[in-house]
Amino acid sequence: NMSSKEKLDVLRMIKRYKDENNLTIINFTTDLEESFETDRLIVIDKGKIILDGSPLEVMKKDKILNRIGLDMPFIIDLSSKLRLYGLIDELYVDMDKLVNDIWE
Prior knowledge:
Helices cover 47% and strands 11% of the residues. The chain is mainly alpha-helical. A two-stranded antiparallel sheet has the order 1-2. The radius of gyration is 15 Å and the shape is globular.
């Protein structure tokens, strides 16, 4: 099994390859963290598209994602709760950036 950091490194490498070669990459997964480096996230449930947009736009629909059994990545869940309490203004996919913004 790959760690989250190793997975993210591989996904960034694939994105760089995609961008350099003007390709479209389709990745099927139940791990929403894998979508952080994507341009578009489509969520399908029972054969129907239920959400479509940028990863952050889609992850703002946490109630729908939870209802269909998808777990929110830790950083999204944490930043969503901090946002609810008015401590931050946006969702984060980068823990270092979140910590830096909170302490500023």
